[in-house]
Amino acid sequence: MTICRWFWMWQTADELLAGVEHTETKAEQAEKLILDLLADGKQMLSADIDKAAAQRGISARTVRTAKQSLGNKLISERSGTQWLLSLKTE
Predict the structure, then answer these.
(1) How confident is the model at residue 79 (pLDDT cuts 50, 70, 90)?
(2) pLDDT for 40-63, tens place per residue?
(3) In the prediction, which pLDDT does 71 show?
(4) Between the CA of residue 66 and those of 26, 40, 49, 60, what are the distances in Å?
(5) Cα torsion at 88, 80, 61, 22 (round to 10°)?
(6) What are the domain boundaries of the chain?
(7) 39 pLDDT more than 50
(8) What's the rounded Cα separation, in Å, for the pair 43 and 87?
(9) Contact in structure between 4 and 16 (CB atoms under 8 Å)
(10) pLDDT tens digit string along 14-25?
(11) Any idea which architecture 25-87 has in CATH?
(12) From the record, what ranges are coiled-coil (predicted)?
């Protein structure tokens, strides 16, 4: 069975030929959630993002990985003992 890489998604050649939809991974879900929560210039505590992800069944480790993956798009500022996240403006 041949594996193809297609726009950051792994699918088998058979799935591509059959037109099978790609199911979002937890990492993709976490990245999308972070981007959605911080859209339109919103700021949010990192801990609150972690809680929102946990409510959707996304582990803390996966959220941490997603934050690292989005690192070039995120601004992290310390607010007392916590971290405040926002998106960089283009």
Answers:
(1) confident
(2) 999 999 999 999 999 999 999 999
(3) 87
(4) 9, 19, 11, 10
(5) -30
(6) 25-87
(7) yes
(8) 8
(9) yes
(10) 666 676 676 789
(11) Orthogonal Bundle (1.10)
(12) 13-40
Distances (CA, A) of 17 to 2, 5, 10, 87: 12, 14, 13, 37
The residues, any chain, with a CB within 8 Å of residue 83's CB and separated by 6 or more, are 45, 46, 47, 76, 77
- Residue 40, judged by CB atoms within 10 A of its CB (0-12, 13-18, 19+), counts as exposed
Terminal alpha carbon distance of the chain: 42
In the block, residue with structure tokens 């059959």: 18
Segment 6-12 mean pLDDT: 52
In whole angstroms, what is the distance from residue 14 CA to residue 2 CA?
A: 8
